[in-house]
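2024-03-11 09:14:02 INFO worker-7 job=invfold-0412 stage=load source=structure_tokens
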């Protein structure tokens, strides 16, 4: 709960240091006295953004500081997660410098605004008049029902599986998209792959094929050259080179005794003769192998042409590049086949996730449907007490065709204010006063089923008066048995219901205007209520009326902090 609020240099406020208490407190004051300014400063503590326009003195910084007793609200985990020091009496501070720089602190540790806002959501609910529009919000409507039905743990568990389900759905869609894309290219890739397979690239040496083609194409010329060469080297006896070298060796042998160079030359001729004889044998052997095979040449030319066609089609220059392309195409073709198996597995996983998610959603839906009649009964009972005996509030729950982050329900708040009229959505038929009473009824319901420490009502009683205003005050008083309730009001009937009464007022001088707030004594409270009843001129009747209001609704108070 809020224990203390200190405000310095904010809007019309020089400095305020005010204590708050548990139970039901009311805040009154003339229009323009600064009640909304008080809420504005409090909203800074809750993480709202601000700029230098809020500075009263543009040369000094603005400071807003609040003390909260959070002992009973299970917030230690929040402090641990955000690496903050926990204290049962937590201090939240916000500063805004003349340069516009804003800083936030929790227990004197600097924090970002989103952390401050997150903590603020656990501490205070500020309900201003425009918050009545929340009644038309499907998110708020679900929050009301789910809070009453105590579905937090169920929803947390559901959202974990909902996230998993969405992740599987996304992966499946991506797989299908990739599969469709690969499948669209499958026939084309298959054709290209078969073209490469038919080329038998792994066993092909283009250079050797071209050599063989040249050999076959010129076989007759090759055969003639081989034959003539063999004839010259080892052909007809006595005229071939071998015979002539033999004869030369004989001549040199005759003069070797008196011509020393003869033996050396003989050795060299002998060596050459061995090489020539070897060459002659090779010529003879190759000659026997050379044959003109026109059919083989046609087939060879066709194979070489095919390879060049494939090279041209794939716009590469070497067979190694073609083999690399073939490997890549084979991988893509296999990928399509693997996609089918992977998609099947993913579909099975998604189906299992869907079945589990459906069960969890059905349980949530069941609890919402069980809670709805109780909510309707509670709200309609309060509406009757608030002067709307023929009003009827109902909760309509329909089934969605798809899962959402909150389950499978489509929930609507419907309302009728009169007999024999059709139910419609709230925003279409409810007046401002009706919306205020309906919202108060719902907030009263939530106060019994939430752990929120403090709620602030900013003129929720607008549009009502008399006995209805008194009843609204009574409802807020009853809410204060489970939470701290602060109500800004213009109505004496509501103000009289408060256990404590604060008054916001302005002090005007020639040089400046300052807003301030004070906790009223019993005597001052009578005067404030009398003014609210009759205006600035206090009559004895107004004073007696104020005393009567207070006597009927207040109990002895202790102003000591708890």
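2024-03-11 09:14:09 INFO worker-7 stage=emit residues=562
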């Amino acid at each position: 709960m809020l224990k203390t609020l200190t405000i310095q240099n904010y809007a019309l406020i020089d400095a305020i240091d005010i204590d708050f208490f548990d139970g039901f407190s009311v805040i009154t004051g003339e229009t323009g006295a600064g009640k909304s300014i008080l809420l504005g400063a409090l909203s800074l503590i809750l993480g709202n953004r601000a700029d230098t326009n809020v500075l009263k003195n543009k040369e000094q910084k603005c400071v807003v500081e609040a003390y909260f007793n959070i002992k009973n609200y299970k917030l230690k985990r929040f402090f641990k997660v955000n690496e903050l020091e926990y204290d049962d009496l937590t201090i939240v501070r916000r500063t805004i410098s003349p340069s516009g720089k804003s800083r936030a602190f929790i227990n004197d540790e600097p924090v970002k605004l989103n952390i401050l806002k997150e903590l603020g959501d656990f501490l205070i609910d500020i309900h201003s008049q425009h918050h009545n529009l929340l009644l038309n919000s499907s998110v708020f409507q679900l929050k009301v029902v789910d809070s009453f039905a105590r579905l937090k743990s169920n929803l947390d568990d559901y959202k974990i599986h909902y996230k998993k389900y969405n992740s599987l759905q996304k992966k499946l869609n991506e797989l299908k998209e990739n599969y469709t894309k690969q499948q669209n290219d499958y026939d084309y890739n298959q054709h290209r792959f078969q073209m490469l397979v038919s080329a038998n690239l792994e066993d092909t040496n283009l250079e050797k094929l071209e050599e063989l083609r040249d050999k076959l194409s010129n076989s007759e010329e090759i055969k003639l050259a081989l034959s003539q060469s063999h004839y010259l080297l080892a052909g007809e006896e006595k005229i071939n080179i071998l015979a002539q070298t033999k004869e030369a060796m004989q001549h040199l042998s005759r003069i070797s005794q008196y011509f020393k160079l003869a033996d050396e030359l003989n050795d060299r001729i002998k060596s050459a003769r061995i090489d020539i004889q070897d060459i002659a044998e090779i010529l003879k052997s190759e000659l026997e192998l050379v044959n003109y095979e026109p059919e083989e040449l046609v087939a060879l030319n066709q194979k070489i042409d095919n390879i060049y066609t494939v090279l041209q089609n794939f716009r590469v220059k070497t067979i190694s590049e073609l083999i690399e392309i073939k490997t890549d195409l084979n991988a893509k073709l296999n990928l399509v086949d693997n996609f089918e198996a992977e998609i099947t597995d993913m579909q099975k996983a998604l189906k299992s996730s869907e079945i589990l998610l459906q069960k969890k959603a059905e349980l949530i839906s069941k609890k919402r449907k069980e809670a709805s009649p109780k909510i309707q009964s509670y709200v309609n009972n309060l509406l009757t007490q608030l002067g709307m005996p023929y009003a009827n509030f109902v909760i309509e729950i329909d089934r969605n065709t798809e899962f959402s982050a909150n389950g499978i329900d489509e929930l609507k708040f419907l309302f009728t204010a009169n007999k024999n009229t059709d139910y419609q959505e709230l925003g279409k038929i409810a007046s401002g006063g009706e919306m205020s009473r309906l919202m108060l009824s719902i907030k009263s319901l939530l106060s019994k089923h939430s752990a929120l420490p403090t709620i602030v009502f900013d003129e929720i009683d607008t549009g009502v008066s008399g006995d209805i205003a008194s009843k609204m005050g009574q409802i807020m008083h009853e809410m204060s048995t489970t939470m701290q309730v602060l109500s800004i009001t213009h109505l004496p009937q509501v103000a009289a219901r408060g256990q404590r009464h604060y008054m916001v007022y302005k002090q005007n001088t020639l040089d400046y205007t300052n807003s301030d707030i004070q906790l009223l004594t019993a005597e001052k409270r009578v005067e404030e209520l009398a003014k609210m009843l009759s205006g600035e001129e206090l009559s004895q009747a107004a004073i007696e009326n104020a005393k009567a209001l207070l006597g009927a609704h207040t109990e002895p108070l202790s102003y000591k902090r708890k």
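2024-03-11 09:14:09 INFO worker-7 stage=report msg="Residues 2-128+436-519 form a domain with the Rossmann fold fold (CATH 3.40.50.300)."
2024-03-11 09:14:10 INFO worker-7 job finished
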